[in-house]
Amino acid sequence: MRKFLIIAFILSVLPSFSSASDVKLLISGAEEKVEAFKKNDIHYVSFSEIVELVGGTLDWKILGHTIEFVEDTNHFSFVIGSPYIERNDSLFNMTYPALYKKGKLFVPTETFIRYWDEVILQKVIWDSESKTIRINSEYFNVTDISCSKKANGLLIEVFLTSALAYDVFVTEGNWINISIRDGIMNRSQIQSRMNSRLMYKLKTHQQNTTGQVSIRLKRKVDKWHHKFQSNPPRIQISISDTDFEMDPIDTHPTIGPDTKIDVIVIDAGHGGRDYGAIGQKNLREKDVSLGIAKELAKMIRKDKQFKVIMTRDRDKTMTLEERAKIANESSCDLFISIHANASPKKHVRGWNVFFLAQARNDSARSVAQFENSVFLRDQAPESTIDEAPMVDYNDPILGIINEMIMTEFQMESHDFAIMVDREFRKQLKIPSRGVDQAGFFVLNKVYAPSVLLEVGFITNKQEEKLLKTKKYQKSVAKAVYNSIKRFKSKYESN
Ligand SMILES: [Zn+2]
């Protein structure tokens, strides 16, 4: 089950409530009871209890009066007494306020479930007649396929709800297979696309969290290309007719407005009042990230073919928006965010290279949650909800842009992450945790290939000592610089 993290802050004293009654919660068939009540005819349900029942954790911290809830890459923020919820970077209106009662958070059932359902992988339905909330784990993110004949061959498209890691491979008998990691297929919809003019067979396999579509085509499959496309998110496979010469797809992709790869943005993580993680000997992440960023900038600047921009070159508090603005206004070709990792387990050590995509495991997810939490804290209202911004954050275009950024540069970002990984293995003396993916807010706003580097664990005594040294900081910088050169030579058109 997915993890929930709730941090709650309570200051309000609340009015009395009327008519207590429970609602049924059906989680993939199993029935549970959850506390509910009606106030001024509005149905409220205990979100605290729902979170516990679906296997989450509750973490209460009394600091203010907002309540935060992180689920995968989605973040919700509630304010007791206010109908506004912040979801990721957008503000939504539940119509009725979130309430606090006996240590629990209550939400207006109907109007909240609607927002929750839009983002959760499981399907959540509120049936007001039978007073039942259904959470269905069979929710699809591989929704449909299409197969059509084009002038120079065949085009197969597999439609997803978001970017997912996938593989395309051809097997004996003209089978083309598309295997999607974390893919949950709408099998009946996909099977309904069987087209006997083009294919002999169409099969779907669902094995745990991997979905696979296999099509046995009526033609020989020897020349084919695949590509991920956004808007809508889909995998495209072009199979060219042997008689026709087809334009190769993206054999030499270019990035940014020009064809040169010369503008590099270095983002030293944290800074100013945001210290980042802190070591046992009080080494601060913000100082490590700045030290490495400066070394890297110096190294790249010596190489006249690049222009370097630093999001900060001193100890300064920077918001997410400020960092992204610097990157986007420079039309950079690469964005590199530098961090040091932290763990409550002091023995955990090693470096990690991350690129932006849905997290695939809890460990990657928790790194993103930690790095993102700083920005979430920045956004917490400091005074009262009455002073909440009057801007309409409910802008669907922003969501689409975020989605586009996430998928647009995924291939290049992944490729660059692999280059950095390779160099780190050569240069760094500490263990490798390899390349991984997660939903980092700072990368999700930058319109360029980007990576986030966790160059070691500040919470590990040995690595804290190492991270502090100029020597180690220089070897990290050297490895990144070498990777930038590799990236340039691969992606730059002449
Ligand atoms: Zn950090």
Secondary structure: elements and pairs:
Elements: E1 5-8, E2 18-27, E3 30-39, E4 42-46, H1 47-53, E5 57-58, E6 66-71, E7 74-79, E8 84-87, E9 90-93, E10 99-101, E11 104-108, H2 109-119, E12 123-127, E13 132-136, E14 142-150, E15 153-160, E16 166-171, E17 175-181, H3 187-191, E18 199-207, E19 210-217, E20 224-229, E21 234-240, E22 263-268, H4 285-302, E23 307-310, H5 320-329, E24 334-341, E25 351-356, H6 362-379, H7 396-408, H8 410-427, E26 432-438, E27 450-457, H9 461-468, H10 470-491
Parallel strand pairs: 1-5, 2-13, 22-23, 22-24, 24-27, 25-26
Antiparallel strand pairs: 1-6, 2-3, 3-4, 4-11, 6-7, 7-8, 8-9, 10-11, 12-13, 14-15, 15-21, 16-17, 17-19, 18-19, 20-21, 25-27
Helix pairs in contact: 4-10, 8-10
Bound molecules: zinc ion.
Zinc ion binds at residues 269-270, 276, 285, 339, 371.
Explained architecture:
The protein has 494 residues and is of the alpha+beta class. The protein folds into three domains: 5-136, Copper Amine Oxidase, Chain A, domain 1; 142-240, Immunoglobulin-like (Sandwich), CATH 2.60.40.3500; 263-491, 3-Layer(aba) Sandwich (Aminopeptidase), CATH 3.40.630.40. The protein is 26% helix and 34% strand. The protein has helices at residues 47-53, 109-119, 187-191, 285-302, 320-329, 362-379, 396-408, 410-427, 461-468, 470-491; strands at residues 5-8, 18-27, 30-39, 42-46, 57-58, 66-71, 74-79, 84-87, 90-93, 99-101, 104-108, 123-127, 132-136, 142-150, 153-160, 166-171, 175-181, 199-207, 210-217, 224-229, 234-240, 263-268, 307-310, 334-341, 351-356, 432-438, 450-457. It has a seven-stranded mixed sheet. Strands 5-1-6-7-8-9 form a six-stranded mixed sheet, with helices on one face. A hairpin with a 4-residue loop joins strand 20 (224-229) and strand 21. Helix 4 (285-302) crosses helix 10 and helix 8 crosses helix 10 (470-491). The site of zinc ion has 6 residues, from loops.
